[in-house]
Design brief:
- By secondary structure, the protein is mainly alpha-helical.
- The protein is built from five helices and no strands.
- The chain is about 55% helix and about 0% strand.
- Helix 1 runs antiparallel to helix 2 and helix 2 packs across helix 4.
- The longest helix is centred in the middle third of the chain and has 19 residues.
């Protein structure tokens, strides 16, 4: 078993111990490592991860984003073990997991009004 395959087995075992099932992630990461090995590479690079994530040609962008996201999580784990590992940046093929949260700023009064209104209550804080 290659060092990358062993690292994948360890990664999956650790995540499963935390309660994750990872059925799809396991399949995708095994496919990615097969691709990586076919390219003759012995460590994870952003270029290879991005190229693999964009397969097959014409795939839906959300699928490509999901594939890269799975590799990114594994790369983050692997980086602590193998310093040559590159973690693909979040802004490559951004998807739902990489979007910035939309923040709303409400005054205290507005927040109280919203809470009271959602329960059909009248608030004493509302003038």
């Amino acid at each position: 078993m290659s060092a990358l395959r062993q690292a994948l087995a360890d990664y999956l075992a650790m995540r499963r111990a935390l309660g994750y099932t990872l059925v799809r992630s396991e399949k995708l990461l095994a496919q990615f490592l097969t691709y990586l090995e076919a390219q003759g590479e012995d460590h994870l690079t952003t270029k290879t991860a991005l190229t693999w994530a964009m397969l097959p040609a014409g795939a839906d962008r959300s699928w490509m984003s999901a594939r890269l996201s799975v590799v990114r999580r594994f790369a983050t784990h692997l980086r602590g073990i193998e310093p040559a590992t590159e973690v693909p940046p979040c802004d490559l093929l951004p998807g739902r997991s990489c979007r910035e949260a939309e923040w709303h700023s409400y005054s205290t009064t507005t927040g109280v009004e919203r809470c009271a209104g959602s329960h059909g209550l009248k608030s004493s804080a509302v003038n």
